Amino acid sequence: MEALVLFSGGLDSSTCLALAVKKHGAENVTALSVYYGQKHDKEIQASDRIAEYYGVAHRKLDLTTIFADSDCSLLKSSHDEIPKETYAQQLSGSDGKPVSTYVPFRNGLFLSSAASIGLSLGCKVIYYGAHSDDAAGNAYPDCSDKFNNAMNEAIFTGSGEQIKIEAPFVGMTKADVVRMGAELKVPFELTWSCYEGGDKPCGVCGTCRDRAAAFAANGLIDPLVKGE
Ligand SMILES: [Zn+2]
User: 145 CA distance to ligand 1 centroid (A)?
Assistant: First the structure.
């Protein structure tokens, strides 16, 4: 095994998985999906379909208990509603705090967990799909270039220089990720991004808005909302 991919079943991590498979071959890639107490399991279902599509090994990890005290609006344990504005709107007047859908230090925890698992599997690299739109305005500080560099240094040093992080989209926008995903023929129709767990994407949560704008910027139609 060469590469471990943090894999939510969303658009960004699916494109990341496609990149890793292209570079390392499906037989050398393991996808790692983490359950953290989300209000729905649509992403996990999507991750099953996409891992099967690419023919990669698929591991799952349940870290729900770590977030038991969090009031993050994505979590089952929270009664807060998921905001229906864009990230930029949510951030205006937030005094520099992350958005309410920020899960406390999620990527730090996931990358650390991935480092432990990856080392045991003999992987040399951990991929994750953070991009600059999510880091913009400090919406998700654990998607920033600065965070990524710090984590990479910590993991590389702490692993005895055995494993490193690849964040191929950290300097790219979500529109760039969609363009790359389209080039790689990622099965976007199998992915799930929406924070709500409906039959169709809600269209109004922060990630639905971001996803729609990224497809529109490329002159593409999202297959999940085709015909609407
Ligand atoms: Zn949505």
Answer: 26
Residue 181: CATH number of its domain: 3.40.50.620
Per the structure, how many domains does the chain have? 1
- N-to-C CA span, the chain: 42
Domain region containing 180: 3-225
8-42 per-position pLDDT tens digit: 999 999 999 999 999 999 999 999 999 998 888 89
Residues with CB under 5 A from ligand 1 (ion): 194, 201-202, 205, 208
Residue from 138, 140, 136 nearest 171 by CA? 136
Q: Could you tell me the distance, in angstroms and rounded to a whole number, from the CA of residue 205 to the centre of ligand 1?
A: 4
35, β-bridge pairs: 62
- DSSP of 39-69: S--HHHHHHHHHHHHHT-EEEEEE-GGGGTT
Compute, in angstroms, the gap from residue 74 CA to the centroid of ligand 1.
Answer: 11
pLDDT tens-place string over residues 42-78: 999 999 999 999 999 999 999 999 999 988 888 888 8
